[in-house]
Amino acid sequence: xxxxxxxxxxxxxxxxxxxxxxxxxxxxxxxxxxxxxxxxxxxxxxxxxxxxxxxxxxxxxxxxxxxxxxxxxxxxxxxxxxxxxxxxxxxxxxxxxxxxxxxxxxxxxxxxxxxxxxxxxxxxxxxxxxxxxxxxxxxxxxxxxxxxxxxxxxxxxxxxxxxxxxxxxxxxxxxxxxxxxxxxxxxxxxxxxxxxxxxxxxxxxxxxxxxxxxxxxxxxxxxxxxxxxxxxxxxxxxxxxxxxxxxxxxxxxxxxxxxxxxxxxxxxxxxxxxxxxxxxxxxxxxxxxxxxxxxxxxxxxxxxxxxxxxxxxx
Amino acid sequence: xxxxxxxxxxxxxxxxxxxxxxxxxxxxxxxxxxxxxxxxxxxxxxxxxxxxxxxxxxxxxxxxxxxxxxxxxxxxxxxxxxxxxxxxxxxxxxxxxxxxxxxxxxxxxxxxxxxxxxxxxxxxxxxxxxxxxxxxxxxxxxxxxxxxxxxxxxxxxxxxxxxxxxxxxxxxxxxxxxxxxxxxxxxxxxxxxxxxxxxxxxxxxxxxxxxxxxxxxxxxxxxxxxxxxxxxxxxxxxxxxxxxxxxxxxxxxxxxxxxxxxxxxxxxxxxxxxxxxxxxxxxxxxxxxxxxxxxxxxxxxxxxxxxxxxxxxxxxxxxxxxxxxxxxxxxxxxxxxxxxxxxxxxxxxxxxxxxxxxxxxxxxxxxxxxxxxxxxxxxxxxxxxxx
Lengths: 314, 387
Ligand SMILES: Nc1ncnc2c1ncn2[C@@H]1O[C@H](COP(=O)(O)OP(=O)(O)O)[C@@H](O)[C@H]1O
Ligand SMILES: [Mg+2]
Known about the structure:
Chain A is of the alpha/beta class. Helix content of chain A is about 40%, strand content about 30%.
């Protein structure tokens, strides 16, 4: 039997200029990205921005219109078969068999992957996921959180080297969400590379690196700090009375790019610090509210990026 | 660990295991789906009993129109004897031949009985007059029993009326003649033809539908995305999805064969093992066709419609509905392509005529070719990506 050679590079995913259109509309445009092995890589972006489409191209479920690249060293255009053997893909929508029990679903996966002892492998996965007392429940009858756990369990059962998780925590309660992320970190510590799409900001902060995609364009990549620094956003945080009226006033000023209320405070953001300071000088001097310099948050950055992308798009 | 993982999934054994995974999965789903399962047992039984009995049993009390042109006492005796046979129910008394014809044409009467003028006189003179029985043989099995019962009447019906001086007329041959005209379908196929034919149509319809839904169902439920992201290929998926239904088809075949033998008294003159083997081939054939539809259709409704669309010519042009050799040339050409045509020849040949494999070689070849073609189309059509 031939044994495939996997190049011992540092890169798990290496794709360039991926483009995909549906019905003449580009859904992913010229996407280039690299994911280092052993990282948890967050893939962020608003709904409909092409996250799912990208993940599907990476695991051979969709053929890119143009572009090329490798996944675990296998060509995404010609070696889909090899990729499927080593990549665990967790779909956005639950896609295991609702009319099969947890055990039956896992045994199916184990058999398809030709594991030496499918029953034992399924049993081990059930124990690991803490699903022992539900093993014979039909998958379709599980709650959202348990479905997610099962889907993750099915993905890691064949011991893949790369996990592609598509919004794995959407619609799951916070406790289950945290457990899920703990599990992902454990897996990454064991050497697995994880690419996870999400639109929760707090989840982005739990990733080693992130990429932000909006309407088909990759807009930012790097660690969370790098992305924030790279955006060069100046930020004032305002507290006090009459914030609603102030927000309305601020939105009309040139140099103020974003005004967003956060609880009892108002975030005032500008892409150019000098312009922002000039524009707000008068209001700051009036003393009606308390103005303090703040750090831009990841959310500020994303909303700003999204706004810019939309401007370009229109 | 990684070398082991690399070696995994290759070779024939691995392929067999993936097929087995699919097979077990489908079998479990089949078992869970109570309604489908019940349908699979119930449809063939109901079809067989309904069709089988409706078409095959000797129907009694058939509506009969009489045209009496004679007034001798023999007429009443004859009509009473007809009624006593239980096959005939005199529901109309026609006044003219035209009216008699109309009653038959409109289907109000299944039989017309015409007793000619001077019947009694000619009978007494020993001139062997003829009673004309017109049978609507559109459905031959409906009339054949009645007609043969009638033939039996001629010898004995007038024994009591012909006593004393005319007693000599009781001697053979019978003192009068019954002339039967089978209208509309003079050939009159035997009822044994129908039960074996039903076996073919039932297996066609049920097998087609069950696999026609299998791929579209995975797409509609969204499970196709997971399935496609796993290392399993279209041939393994196809064979894994077809296999459980071969078992179901075998079960249906057993039910139908049993019913044919015990309920309808259809013999198996030829080799039973060969009949079963070729029936399994036919079952796989239909499953492959259904599966092919499943890969072409975009949803379950479409797949159903395609199945029915395919079933129709099978029903009409295979020789089940109409005698194959009686069909126009173009219909025979179309029929020759359809698997049911060949299966009907096989099943009728083996059950009724004791045909051997050599007699059926062409039919087996044609069926096999059709099956391989369907499988090839299915594998080619199977979309391995979501594009
Ligand atoms: N198979 C498809 N056919 C047509 N349009 C599609 C298809 N898949 C995705 N799209 C469109 O592409 C866009 C991006 O979708 P998707 O990749 O699912 O985004 P995300 O996962 O980021 O929400 C959406 O507008 C969606 O409607
Ligand atoms: Mg998505």
